[in-house]
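Long-time lurker, first post. I've been practising inverse folding by hand and with some scripts of my own, and I keep getting stuck on stretches where the structure tokens seem ambiguous. Below is the full token string for one chain I'm working on. Before anyone asks, I'm not after the true native sequence, just a reasonable design that respects the backbone. If someone could post their per-position residues I'd love to compare against what I wrote down in my notebook.
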């Protein structure tokens, strides 16, 4: 799966800023609410976002070690005091790291998996876009992702579905979505989520 032609110049800054604003809009009394991610409450999703921002920041820097070697399934993430400031900080560092041309070349590692830098960049774009949707849906906020990041995420997810049996995507069974649906809904479906999910579902 080669994403270099479409992601080599992708600036993740607009999407990380959108995600940081969503996180800042989360009320403390909503941290225990469910999300579209099975078994993850809002606080766990925010903890996951913090961890993945650190991991992919270090992957971009080729600073390989515990942060890039640990599988995201190793434990259930959580947030602690000062999580808003911490998440905003690491999201900014993530965007800065992926502005370096070297981040998109050669090999790196994330989640314990070795992969080309360009593919890692597409993966983190996908994580930021789809988890932005998760967070917005879980907390009742409006969400319009960065168009370039959304296009990269959709390209990655569509390629993964094409390479599989079309029923299994990168993150679970693909949810069928009409071909004329908005691009975000199609990406969400490819990620194994129901675009119609609500907090009361």
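-- Answer (accepted) --
I ran through it position by position. Result:
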């Amino acid at each position: 799966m080669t994403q270099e032609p479409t992601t080599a110049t992708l600036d993740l800054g607009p999407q990380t800023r959108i995600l940081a604003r969503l996180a800042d809009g989360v009320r403390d009394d909503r941290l225990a609410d469910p999300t579209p991610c099975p078994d993850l409450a809002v606080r766990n999703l925010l903890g996951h976002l913090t961890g993945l921002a650190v991991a992919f920041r270090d992957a971009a820097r080729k600073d390989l070690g515990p942060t890039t070697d640990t599988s995201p399934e190793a434990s259930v993430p959580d947030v602690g005091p000062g999580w808003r400031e911490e998440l905003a900080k690491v999201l900014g560092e993530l965007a800065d790291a992926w502005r370096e041309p070297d981040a998109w070349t050669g090999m790196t590692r994330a989640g314990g998996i070795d992969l080309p830098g360009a593919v890692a960049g597409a993966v983190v774009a996908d994580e930021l876009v789809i988890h932005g949707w998760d967070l917005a849906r879980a907390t009742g906020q409006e969400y319009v992702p960065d168009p370039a990041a959304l296009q990269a995420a959709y390209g990655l997810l569509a390629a993964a579905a094409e390479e599989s049996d079309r029923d299994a995507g990168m993150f679970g069974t693909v949810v069928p979505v009409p071909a004329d649906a908005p691009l975000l809904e199609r990406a969400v479906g490819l990620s194994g989520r129901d675009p119609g999910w609500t907090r009361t579902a």
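A couple of notes from the structure itself: The beta strands are 107-110, 113-116. Residues 1-6 have pLDDT under 50 and may be disordered. Happy to go over any region you disagree with.
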